Amino acid sequence: MTFRKIVHIDMDAFYASVEQRDDPQLRGKPVVVAWRGNRSVVCAASYEARRFGVRSAMPAVRAERLCPEAIFIPPDFTRYRAVSRQVREILQRHTDLIEPLSLDEAYLDVTENKTGLPTATRVARAIREQIRGELLLTASAGVAPNKFLAKIASDWRKPDGLFVIQPEEVEAFLTPLPVGRLPGVGKVTEANLEKLGIRTVGDLRGLELQSLEERFGRNGLRLHELARGIDENPVTPDRPTQSISSEDTFEQDVLLSETEPLIRRLAEKTWSAAKKESRVARTVVLKLKTREFRILSRSFTPISPPASCEELIGIALALRERVGLGEQQRFRLVGVGLSNFTQPEEAPAQPMLFE
After folding, report:
1. Residues 86-108: pLDDT tens digits?
2. Looking at 64, 105, 232, 247, which residue is catalytic?
3. Can 208 be counted among the known catalytic residues?
């Protein structure tokens, strides 16, 4: 087993904390970052709002019912991305082995660090102090011998906390944990394990590998390893982008023929984001969700990648014609994406008209 020194940094209620930092009148108040509306969902909630049960990804109307005094702030992702870059600059002072998971969290491998600090705990403490002192924000940190344990640890003393799991403490730490705390154990797997009488990681450790593989297939080996604190996945800096997309939910369900304005707007957002990539995308994806919550997608890979926003829009609109669910079918969501990224020199340059 490889013992690394891994730190997981997780900004506390990031979007809401940025809003409270930048507007003193919001401090100490229940802030919900979300657009108002029946279809909107919560992007972030301050800890004052969380005390009422408000959580990320919750429908905004439910958040409003739970916390009538909540102050709703429309998200400003341009500002959040700028602050995220400032956090990243702080992290880079300590190591180049940084794996971002989102704007507000990242793994760091500090087995060797740039500042010469003797322990990963000291590195995590320094990072948290620099974020607080320079950005006036708080971050929680987890320190552990591998990634999945570091991520669990960062959540242990939130907000504004630091928790360390030493290699010799792994088994004692994991044993009483509910199996649902293990990465990849969703509600279905957790329910299937409970049928076997498995509720804790300690219980899971008692199952033989062969039994786990028979019941859970390839995931059986992963469960076997996690129950023993084994995670050999390295911190992977700047993973290549797999896809870029933009999507939105309509206030009212609409007919397919009424989606063109939003498809155009989403394509423009996706194209703008894709221009920041060094690689080019070859495949255009149109995503739709019906009134009945059925998700479907249509994709097309032209011989040469889309060369302009207008070309992307044209392909997305052409994909719309391939949906074929009837003129009266209504939709609640639409998205436009780009995927299948490749290096520019690998992308065929031969032009081709979409037919």
Report:
1. 999 999 999 999 999 888 999 99
2. 105
3. no
